[in-house]
Specification:
It comes from Halomonas saccharevitans. This protein is mainly alpha-helical and 71 residues long. The chain contains three helices and no strands. It has one domain. The longest helix is centred in the first third of the chain and has 23 residues.
Amino acid sequence: MADNADIATELMELRLEGALASRLQVTAPVHATECEECGDEIPAARSEAAPWATTCIECQGMREQHARHRR
């Protein structure tokens, strides 16, 4: 017979599994074709290497440089 702790553990596991499953569906790669910063085309090599990329290499470099300076 299950006690309250066992029931609570099972419920939390089910909720966690559901949350993880829904999160995995949301984070599917986007494959952007244009840079969201400058509007230029994202090169095919960058799209293949980083399918989640939404910026071209130059704009991503500027983002990273700005982030380093903000620290």
